[in-house]
Structures are given as C-alpha cells and as structure tokens.
Specification:
The protein is α/β, with parallel strands linked by helices and 449 residues long. The protein has helices at 5-13, 21-27, 53-56, 65-77, 90-102, 116-133, 156-159, 193-211, 237-248, 269-273, 300-308, 326-339, 344-361, 398-408, 431-448; strands spanning 32-36, 39-42, 47-50, 107-113, 141-145, 176-179, 216-221, 251-255, 279-282, 294-299, 368-374, 377-382, 411-412, 414-415, 420-423. It has three domains: 1-50, no CATH class; 68-339, Type I PLP-dependent aspartate aminotransferase-like (Major domain) (Aspartate Aminotransferase, domain 2, 3-Layer(aba) Sandwich); 348-393, no CATH class. The chain has 15 helices and 15 strands. Helix 7 links the parallel strand 5 and strand 6 (176-179). Helix 5 (90-102) runs parallel beside helix 12 (326-339) and helix 8 runs parallel beside helix 9 (237-248). Bound molecules: pyridoxal-5'-phosphate.
Length: 449
C-alpha cells in the first residue's frame, strides 16, 4: 500500500505529546479521520472500537449532531468574546451557573480554563493568592499522591507523580510533596478498606506534621487515579481525606478532570462520597472533547479571600485569552444537556454492571492479576505471576505489543507502561458495544500470551 504523505509530514514537523520522539519517527502516526458513536475510522480504512473515549474525554461519543449544531450556531453568532475585564458571553455565564447547580454545595464560583493542566495551575495560583491575601503567606507547600496525574503544565506537572513528567524538567518543585497511593492491589496496609483509608489519612497527617501545618497550603487528589493506572480507592476514602484536610487546616482540592461528568456513575465522584472540596478542577467531559475547556470551581471562602485581598481597583492578575470561550461554553451546555435530559448519565449507570462483569470475567485469563472499576472507568492489571503479583520485565515491552495487538483487533484502550490496561468507554455504549469490546479484548490478550 502506498504510504500516506501525511506520515512523512507528521514525522518531520509535528511534535506529539508524551511519546519517545525517536520511536515515533520510526513507527509513524496513525491518522484518525472520522468517528461515530463509540467507533473511530483511520486513514487506512480501519474501524476501531474506542474503549477510551479519546483520552478519557469523549464521554458522549462521536458525531453528536446537537453538539455540532450548538457550536456552529455560536460560531455564526459570536465566535469569540473575551472574558477579560468586564466582558462576558451568555453561554459562559449560563455554563458557570449550571456547574454550580450540579457541583457539591461547597462550590459557588467558576473560573474557566482551556483544559485540565491549566485548571490545576490556576488552582495553585488561586490558593497562593488566597493565603497571601488572608495573612498566611507562609502556607506554600502542596501535597499530592504518588501515581497521581494533574497535568503537564509547569506547576501541575510537579503535582503529577509520574517519573516521565519530571525527568529532565527539574521537577517536582521544592514546595511539592507526595504521600503514597491508596493502591488496593499493592497496598502495604493490605486490601481491607478501613486499613487503606487509615493508612492514607495517617500518611497525610505525618506529611503535614513534617512540613508544619502552618506551611502547608493544600492537598490535591483524584477521586480515582487515572493515568497512574486507574487506582480505585475504597468507598469512603475521599470523604476521609477531606475530613483530614479540615482537621489539619489545609485546603482540600479534588481533581475531577477524569472522574467528572458521569464517568464513575454520578455527575461527580464527590457526590457519591459526600465530599465537599474547597476547590475542584474539571475538563475533558465538560465539553466531551468537542472543544478545549476546563474549569476551577471554588468555595465562597476562597473566592472572598482573594476578592478582599487586592486593593480597590487592582485586578487579580490571572487570565487567558481563551478563558470562558463562548463556543466551548455553548458546547459545554449542550453536552451537559445530553448527560442529563439526553439520558447519557442514566445509560452509563445502567451499563456499568456489564462493564464491571466483563472486566471481572477476565480475571480467569492467565495474564490478568487484578480487575477494578467504578462506573465506566476501569482497568486490568497484567502480572507475570498471579500469586506474587510480580510485574513483567519492562524489557519485554509487553504494553507496546498489547497496543499493537489491540489495533489489529480493532479496539483502542490505554496500555500503560507497567502493564495496566485502562478503559473509559463512552456513556453512550450499548450492550452490543460491550460484547464486542470484551471479545476483541480477550483476543488481544490471547495473542500476546
Ligand atoms: N488532571 C487529571 C486527573 C487528568 O487526567 C488530566 C489529563 O489526563 C489532567 C488533569 C490534565 O488535563 P489536560 O490534558 O486537559 O491539560
């Protein structure tokens, strides 16, 4: 087959996020061309079942015409309106108000960003401003969790605790600290839920004590760690961490960039846990990937502290040209309507047992050591030895072989380097889609055995 000239152009000019540049030059790009529902088509004509919603974001599936229409109408009417200074646009105002309606009651104010990394960066900046504004400028240290992912912008990458985001980037910053992951499959405290929760709370307390509580600003966490390998803490963990933050007098900051918008069942994972964060970051499912957008939601206390912390007439100097972009906001409003009135949240909840069962059935497979999920977010962990949970030798590059076999079997999921396979099917998945997913997945695993 003649090579697509785009492959050479890509190799010569386009830098891809999070690849080995030399390996990419060798391997070449797979060019995705169109999508419908849960399916993608590439320029080779291969139809692929997407079990990862793009990058955990296309929660409504591809080709939702009402979203396309909402974007087109807003573009025709007003493609851009600055959110700077005292200007605004109707979709952005309505979207902020809708998010406050849906979010935990503690959150009253919304700041729009372009995605999740800058939402986390913005949260750090707001928190720093808040403590400087309220007379506690020494509270400058941030705690997050090993295996956590909060983005790859300059500060969020330091909250992230995955080695490749630090190597050669001089991160983390001296103000950024980690506590162990509540990893049920490999937790030194064992697999008992209460023991895992107790261990996490104790680790947070110990870290705050080590740094001095007057020096610690905030604790950041994901309700379920996504890029770190879909690590699902026991129920009650998130609430317990929030309670500990209150007791320790540090801000409780929840990154729902992946877990938001029905990914784990309810609109937000905080809802199921009764957790009340001081700040919460959103992105991905907010616009379902149809346009870039993220958000930081904050409590009245933080907002008022910042607002009172500047002299009259002096602006709070934080903003992006595309903050509160009206086209993204119009998309966000329609995407939210699809989750609620459009029935997608309800479908996600209805399909989740099928997903969970399909993953659990694969525990029979010789490669699968653990199967875990909540809602439509799940993972399989592959191990060389089920009894010792020993990992495969990285030199085998099993995850690369799996990704190649998955493509041959026309299914896309995420094969992480430590041989965790991550899944985040769209909320529009049907029973037939799940049957196809598990048939193709089993065949993929059999082929690499
Ligand atoms: N936070 C979490 C939990 C994420 O999973 C991600 C991206 O995967 C981010 C933040 C960063 O978001 P973005 O890639 O939109 O900058």
């Amino acid at each position: 087959m003649p090579t697509n000239p785009l492959v050479a152009l890509d190799r010569d000019h386009l830098i891809h996020p999070v690849v080995n540049y030399r390996a990419h030059e060798q391997r070449g790009v797979t060019i995705l061309e169109s999508g419908h529902g849960a399916y993608l088509r590439d320029t080779q004509g291969t139809e692929l079942l997407d079990a990862f919603s793009g990058l955990w974001c296309v929660n409504v599936g591809y080709g939702q015409q009402s979203v396309v229409q909402a974007a087109a109408e807003q573009m025709a009417k007003l493609p851009y309106a600055t959110g700077y200074f005292h200007y605004g646009s109707e979709p952005a105002i309505r979207l902020a108000a809708r998010l406050v309606e849906l979010a935990p009651a503690s959150l009253r104010h919304v700041y729009f960003t372009l995605g999740g990394s800058d939402a986390n960066d913005s949260a750090i900046r707001f928190i720093t401003h808040y403590y400087n504004s309220t007379g506690r400028p020494q509270k400058k240290h941030f705690i997050s969790i090993e295996r956590g992912y909060h983005g790859s912008s300059s500060q969020s990458a330091g909250l992230t605790a995955l080695a490749v985001f630090h190597q050669n980037f001089d991160l983390p910053l001296p103000s950024q600290h980690k506590i162990p992951s509540p990893y049920p499959y490999r937790n030194p405290a064992g697999s008992d839920a209460d023991a895992i929760i107790r261990a996490s709370v104790a680790a947070l307390r110990a870290k705050v004590q080590e740094l001095g509580r007057d020096n610690v600003a905030a604790f950041f966490c994901e309700p379920i760690q996504g890029s770190g390998g879909v690590i699902v803490p026991p129920k009650g963990w998130l609430k317990a961490m929030g309670d500990a933050c209150r007791e320790l007098d540090i801000l409780f900051v929840v990154d729902e960039v992946i877990t938001g918008f029905g990914r784990t069942g309810p609109m937000f994972a905080c809802e199921a846990e009764g957790a009340e964060p001081d700040l919460m970051m959103l992105a991905k499912g907010l616009t379902a990937g149809y346009a870039p957008m993220g958000a930081v939601l904050m409590s009245d206390r933080v907002y008022q502290g910042i607002a009172d912390g500047v002299a009259p007439g002096v602006p709070v100097g934080h903003g992006y040209t595309y903050s509160a972009h009206p086209v993204s906001a119009a998309i966000g409003l329609e995407v939210l309507r699809l989750y609620t009135e459009g029935g997608l949240l309800a479908n996600g909840i209805a399909q989740a047992p099928l997903f969970e069962q399909g993953l659990r059935d694969l525990l029979e497979h010789p490669l699968v050591g653990d199967a875990r999920s909540r809602g439509l977010l799940g993972a399989l962990e592959l191990v060389a030895d089920k009894s010792t949970k020993a990992r495969f030798d990285p030199a085998l590059k099993l995850h690369e072989r799996i990704a190649d076999a998955a493509y041959r079997n026309q299914v896309i999921f995420r094969a992480f380097g430590d041989n965790v396979l991550g899944f985040a099917p769209a909320l529009c998945y049907t029973q037939a889609d799940f049957e196809l997913l598990f048939a193709r997945l089993k065949k993929t695993l059999d082929e690499v055995l």
